[in-house]
Amino acid sequence: HVQLVESGGGSVQAGGSLRLSCAASGFSYSSSCVAWFRQSSGKEREGVAAMYIGRDTTDYAASVKGRFTISQDNAKKTVYSQMNSLKPEDSAMYYCAADLGCMGFVRLQRYDYNYWGQGTQVTVS
Questions:
Q1: Which helix (H) or strand (E) holds 88?
Q2: 20 to 30 A Cα–Cα from 33, which one of 9, 46, 48, 54?
């Protein structure tokens, strides 16, 4: 069965960095899209970065472009989000999600993603 397990969250001061990891299993990893979403209290869940694994094509939300980098390791079936120059407004629960039928089209809308991890908390102060 599909599993997405996030790790790497924590507390950091503004301007600092964190790297999130999403270990994927139970699906055809190389033909899927994997994305990072975040949700803070009282706000909608928003997509921040997404990748089509097969070609390493990516998309980013405007709010994180230039600061966050999504990458992946085929051998480990793990997707990363390197987050630099963190701001207090980046504080949220971060979720990894998979779209098994993306057909190479990278999207940041939550309704495109079928499977979700449990999330990892990021707090920037």
A1: none
A2: 9
